[in-house]
Design brief:
By secondary structure, the chain is an alpha/beta fold. The protein is about 30% helix and about 25% strand. The protein has a six-stranded mixed sheet, with helices on both faces. Strand 2, helix 3 and strand 3 form a beta-alpha-beta unit. The protein is globular and about 40 Å long. The structure holds S-adenosylmethionine. The site of S-adenosylmethionine has 19 residues, from strand 1 and helix 2.
Length: about 160
């Protein structure tokens, strides 16, 4: 279980502050692309009691982690997010495929933190930017290591 003492170590609080500053405190629908062990999802769901969060992750092995590590991360996410019930909507698919089922302009925010290769990020932006309504937040993580960047505010 994550504790308050971890806040900040993954820049969770930066994302929350951005949402608050955009008057999205009553944030109701968002998506996290790349969930891993659910740390950020847990924090967002805990911070925004009305939030329904789409958590998109195919949990396939990639250079940093083998399949066994990914299974472990998925199980941690499942256990960690169970307490939020139907507010946590897990989509075990790749980002671009999952986006097809999401209507346009229906989300308050999208947080991109999936496949960090250039081409994949371009595809994530193309697939998910249209899902954010006017005035919402489209942002991502790891633009450079350790950095959190807001790619754009959807206008
Ligand atoms: C850096 S981790 C995410 C960390 C998480 N956002 C957090 O803050 O705790 C990257 C995740 O992206 C996932 N991923 C890789 N390719 C993906 C894709 N095409 N679509 C969605 N997620 C993907 C990986 O499985 C991995 O769990």
């Amino acid at each position: 279980m994550l504790q308050e003492s971890l806040i900040g170590s993954y820049n969770f609080n930066v994302l929350r502050a951005l949402l608050e500053s955009l008057d999205l405190l009553k944030t109701q629908a968002g998506a996290e692309i790349g969930v891993f062990d659910g740390g950020t999802s847990w924090y967002l769901l805990r911070s925004f009691p009305q939030l329904r969060l789409f958590g998109v992750d195919p949990y396939l092995a990639y250079p940093e982690y083998d399949q066994s590590r990914m299974r472990q991360a998925e199980q941690t996410a499942v256990d960690r997010l169970a307490q939020f019930g139907e507010r946590s909507i897990r989509i075990k698919e790749s980002s671009v495929s999952a986006a097809k089922a999401i209507p346009e302009e229906c989300l308050d925010f999208v947080f991109v933190d999936g496949d960090h290769t250039y081409d994949a990020v371009v595809e994530d932006i193309k697939a998910w930017y249209p899902k954010v309504h006017a005035g919402g937040l489209f942002c991502g993580h790891d633009y450079s290591w350790g950095a959190f960047i807001v790619l754009s505010m959807s206008l």
